[in-house]
Task: inverse folding
């Protein structure tokens, strides 16, 4: 099974990367750019067939290793083989 | 008034009553927030102020002492250096990477606000012992904290282009739940182009420059004054995120407006945000301030005036600007891609008046917020543990296998090579770093191409120390020793010690034993500063470094971190710490015949598992003599390294581990004392020097003249072998093996 | 000789590079702002080290889309000399003035140390003052110095003599141990086909004065002077 993590800077927390990319886009002529958030996309391939178990595992992984909940928000998606 | 609301603002009921007395009524919500932030321990120093008065703060070379954003000391007839050290302990436990990064950002801005170009950083770090990871309850592992902090410091310092050229890292369990991250920065400037954090006339505009304001760190100041407990885990969005890219833009913008004489005063935004900077501006200038919150550039929608006023968003500065120069300043800020706005002006009311969209939302006398903050004369009591520890007699200690003991001490995390840490820091940007990390002190040239153009012949030497164990075992003597050790690392480089800055990291001041330690240590530090003629030109106090667990409280060791700064006539004068040549003679100078004492030593802790013993008084006259001797004879001394952590044996071995070569050593120490005491004592004032055979007689003569001990103990070899005879003990060891043990510890523990 | 040092927001080593050219080489040198497009009259443009745009998105990515970088492309097309140091090298690859890309260091950490590099091709305007095979000691300081390029392009580059310097040990041996960041074939610096654009991760401006530990960078800087 494949777990797809979509990680974004937590709402309210400064995103220096997003800010710099937004500035760059505007300077290249994209003047209607209001804001940019730069995050991460992580794919974790697991040897699992039970969808419920995979969901639980994803939440554990996020908490323990993949996401820094102090400064990041996240969503995840399970894709079955 | 609900005590819960007061407590959320970090105020006690007594303090609330005092506020009412001072302003003649109850404060509203915004005003309560202002008091909560500015009366916090971090901003007001309410528990420590009475004791800081003992520090000497003056000398002919001191241009600016404590009271501004940094101390300033002159180094020749045209140039000066501005420097300070500050703590960022609590955020570094919650979010090590960003906590440490914003600590670096903050201190860099402090130096910048004095009109100096920040040219180097140091960091003094203390973590729990990673060998205990996995065994603690309710306390995080030390390894991820150490990794995060080092990465964060590298992230900020490297990106903003300020080299981190030195520091220290200590590992001890007391710091596990409360790591210490003290960040130091030094900048260079022309003597008479210094700036202060004040306005110079009534009606002068206050211009805010830098990042837009968000909700970062509201209540950060009160968090720093609270202790860590399980509930703290939930205090999440209090950690601010720093942006070194914006920080760099802010440096260039600020230096440009200063070069063009467009501003009259400069203050950075730190704890307590806009409320703090504007009120402190007013207080120092003897004026009032009017603030218009709707003018503040914002990055979040729907921010309340309270949030705008108290936000701790990073990378923001406040300039005092004459009305006719405002447009030019705003233009330059925009050129650098920064937000900029006029957010207020100075008045003659001596009050802080805050407006939001035409409505006055706060109106307080500045004296009430800043000068009349409470000052506590907290009760003090000599700690009970001292009865036990000061009774200790080292002669009770069993004999040990010397070879094993040497290996153990040399490879303990606090003594082991710190390369794992400093390789992650760009220590060369700026092309001024003459002596790089790994020696007693870092040595920096004082030059810059433009903006400002600085061209001094001199070099500055910088070193930091802060042995908390010593201060724990004898606060007064420990305080003296910490200053003496930092200063010693300066003169051992051949530099003249000039001044120090200090960061006092202590536990809970409401505990009378902790407060007693504070009073005694500051007295000791002050006495040493006076004797050694190294005044305190600025510093910081961090209290409540205490881990609160369900069944007990762990206070950190009382840890006064001292960063000493000295000056060399020219960078070529710096005496290396490393041996230079095979055949050179190794000599120990100083208290060479004094009885060695291993109380409070790394050896006692690592090999015998004890932290105990009293400290004999340090002979500061001897320190002064050693200082003169080394500086006056630098041409004859090929290397010099002081005896401190890890004792004499460590001081003998480290200089042999050169970057591209390992020397051999042939040592014979004649002594009637126990060999382990001789090798591991950290308390005698002893320097290990090396010199050529030809220069030996002259040096010995000079040593006799000045009255310091002088003992030839061996020579530098080319054969990678250690042959050590100390008293009746004889050992042989392979230097490459010893070196490997010393080098691999941190990599094994932290990678 | 007239040198131009590009200054992007976040460039750090611009001051260092400027100072070395002005005070050590005693040549004329100017700063050029990233918004400038008129770079007539320069003999050599230097893209210095640092963290342009904070290294955000990818190191060098945002800087490669600026007016000055566009002007540098034209300058290079017309044969002007361009040298990119560290972040400058990253910008040149992002701007496709040089082949390949700089990935994060294999060990995942920033690394700052003195590094030995070997001159593989001394037939360029940037290395003509060196012997072929000469070993130079020059500091590196980077988080993303891991040079990567696909196999076919690599073969082309090797055939064209575009691999200019490689990481080595003190004796000049190209080994894994001597590779500080995992770069393919220990590649430390490359040039374009025409040999007028050169990018390298090590910092020659940090090795121009012996008081700082090594002055081997002078070999590279003097080569540029020889070329005009």
Result:
């Amino acid at each position: 099974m494949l777990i797809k993590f979509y990680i974004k800077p937590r709402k309210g927390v400064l995103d220096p990367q997003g800010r710099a990319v937004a500035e760059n886009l505007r300077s290249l002529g994209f003047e209607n750019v209001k804001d940019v958030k730069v995050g991460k996309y992580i794919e974790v391939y697991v040897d699992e067939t039970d969808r419920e178990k995979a969901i639980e595992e994803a939440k554990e992984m996020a908490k323990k290793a993949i996401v820094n909940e102090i400064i990041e928000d996240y969503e995840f998606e399970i894709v079955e083989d | 008034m609900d005590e819960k609301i007061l407590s959320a603002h970090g105020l006690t009921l007594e303090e609330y009553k005092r506020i009412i007395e001072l302003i003649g009524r109850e404060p509203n919500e915004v005003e309560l927030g202002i008091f909560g932030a500015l009366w916090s321990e971090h901003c007001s120093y309410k528990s420590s102020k009475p004791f800081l008065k003992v520090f000497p703060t003056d000398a002919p070379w001191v241009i600016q002492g404590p009271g501004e954003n940094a101390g300033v000391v002159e180094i020749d007839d045209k140039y000066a250096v501005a420097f300070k050290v500050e703590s960022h302990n609590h955020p570094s436990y919650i979010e090590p990477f960003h906590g440490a990064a914003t600590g670096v950002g903050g201190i860099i801005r402090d130096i910048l606000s004095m009109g100096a170009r920040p040219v180097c950083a140091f960091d003094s770090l203390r973590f729990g012992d990673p060998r205990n990871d996995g065994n603690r309850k309710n306390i995080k592992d030390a390894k991820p904290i150490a990794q995060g902090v080092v990465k964060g410091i590298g992230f900020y310092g490297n990106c903003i282009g300020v080299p981190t050229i030195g520091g220290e890292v200590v590992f001890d369990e007391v710091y596990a739940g409360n790591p210490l991250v003290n960040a130091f920065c030094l900048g260079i400037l022309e003597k008479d182009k210094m700036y202060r954090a004040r306005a110079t006339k009534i009606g002068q505009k206050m211009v805010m420059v830098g990042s837009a304001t968000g909700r970062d760190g509201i209540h950060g100041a009160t968090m720093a004054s609270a202790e860590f407990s399980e509930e703290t885990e939930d205090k999440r969005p209090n950690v601010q995120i720093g942006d070194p890219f914006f920080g760099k833009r802010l440096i260039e913008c600020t230096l440009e407006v200063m070069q063009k004489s467009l501003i009259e005063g400069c203050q950075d935004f730190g704890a307590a945000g806009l409320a703090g900077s504007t009120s402190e501006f007013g207080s120092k200038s003897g004026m009032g301030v009017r603030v218009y919150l709707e003018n503040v550039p914002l990055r979040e929608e729907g921010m309340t005036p309270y949030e705008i006023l108290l936000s701790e968003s990073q990378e923001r500065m406040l300039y005092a600007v004459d009305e006719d120069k405002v447009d030019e300043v705003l233009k330059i800020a925009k050129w650098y891609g920064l937000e900029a706005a006029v957010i207020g002006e100075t008045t003659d009311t001596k009050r802080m008046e805050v407006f939001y969209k035409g409505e006055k939302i706060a109106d307080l006398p500045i004296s009430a917020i800043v000068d009349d903050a409470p000052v506590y004369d907290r009760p003090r009591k000599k700690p009970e543990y001292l009865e036990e520890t000061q009774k200790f007699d080292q002669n009770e200690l069993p004999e040990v296998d010397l070879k094993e003991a040497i290996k153990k001490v040399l490879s303990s995390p606090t003594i082991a090579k710190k390369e794992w840490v400093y390789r992650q820091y760009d220590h060369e940007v700026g092309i001024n770093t003459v002596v790089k990390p790994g020696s007693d002190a870092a040595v920096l040239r004082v030059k810059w191409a433009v903006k400002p153009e600085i061209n001094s012949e001199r070099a500055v030497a910088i070193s930091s120390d802060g042995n908390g164990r010593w201060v724990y075992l004898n606060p007064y003597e420990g305080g003296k020793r910490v200053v003496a050790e930092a200063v010693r690392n300066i003169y051992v480089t051949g530099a003249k010690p000039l001044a120090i800055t200090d960061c006092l990291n202590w536990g809970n001041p409401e505990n009378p034993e902790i407060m007693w330690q504070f009073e005694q240590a500051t007295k000791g530090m002050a006495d040493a500063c006076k004797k050694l003629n190294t005044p305190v030109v600025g510093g910081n106090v961090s209290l409540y470094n205490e881990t609160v667990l369900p069944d007990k409280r762990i206070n950190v060791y009382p840890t006064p971190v001292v960063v000493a700064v000295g000056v060399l006539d020219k960078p070529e004068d710096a005496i290396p710490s490393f041996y230079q040549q095979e055949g050179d003679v190794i000599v120990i100078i100083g208290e060479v015949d004094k009885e060695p004492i291993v109380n409070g030593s790394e050896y006692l802790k690592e090999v015998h598992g004890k932290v105990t013993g009293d400290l004999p008084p340090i002979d500061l006259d001897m320190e002064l003599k050693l200082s003169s001797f080394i500086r006056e004879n630098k041409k004859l001394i090929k290397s010099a390294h002081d005896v401190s952590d890890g004792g004499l044996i460590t001081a003998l071995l480290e200089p042999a581990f050169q970057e591209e070569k390992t020397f051999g050593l042939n040592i014979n120490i004649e002594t009637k004392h126990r060999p382990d005491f001789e090798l591991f004592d950290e308390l005698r004032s002893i320097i290990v020097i090396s010199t050529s055979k030809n220069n030996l007689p002259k040096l010995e003569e000079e040593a006799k003249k000045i009255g310091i001990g002088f003992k030839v103990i061996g020579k530098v070899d080319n054969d990678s072998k250690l042959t050590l005879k100390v008293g009746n003990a004889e050992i042989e060891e392979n230097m490459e093996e010893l070196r490997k043990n010393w080098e691999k510890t941190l990599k094994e523990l932290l990678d | 000789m007239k040198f131009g040092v590009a200054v992007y927001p976040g460039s750090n080593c611009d001051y260092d590079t400027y100072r070395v050219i002005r005070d050590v080489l005693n040549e004329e040198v100017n700063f050029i702002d990233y918004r400038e497009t008129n770079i007539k009259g320069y003999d050599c443009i230097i893209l210095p080290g640092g963290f342009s745009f904070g290294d955000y998105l990818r190191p060098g990515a945002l800087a490669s889309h600026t007016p000055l970088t566009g002007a540098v492309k034209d300058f290079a097309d017309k044969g002007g000399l361009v040298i990119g140091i560290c972040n400058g090298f990253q910008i040149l690859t992002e701007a496709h003035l040089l082949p390949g890309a700089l990935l994060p260091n294999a060990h995942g950490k920033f690394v700052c140390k003195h590094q030995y590099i070997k001159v593989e091709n001394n037939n360029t305007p940037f290395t003509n003052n060196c012997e072929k095979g000469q070993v130079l000691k020059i500091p590196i300081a980077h988080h993303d110095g891991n040079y990567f390029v696909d196999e076919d392009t690599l073969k082309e580059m090797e055939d064209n003599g575009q691999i200019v310097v490689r990481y080595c040990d003190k004796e000049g041996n190209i080994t894994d141990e001597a590779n500080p960041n995992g770069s393919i074939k220990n590649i430390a610096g490359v040039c374009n086909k025409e040999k007028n654009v050169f990018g390298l991760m090590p910092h020659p401006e940090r090795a121009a004065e012996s008081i700082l530990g090594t002055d081997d960078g002078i070999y590279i800087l003097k080569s540029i002077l020889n070329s005009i």
About this structure: The mean pLDDT of chain B is 95.
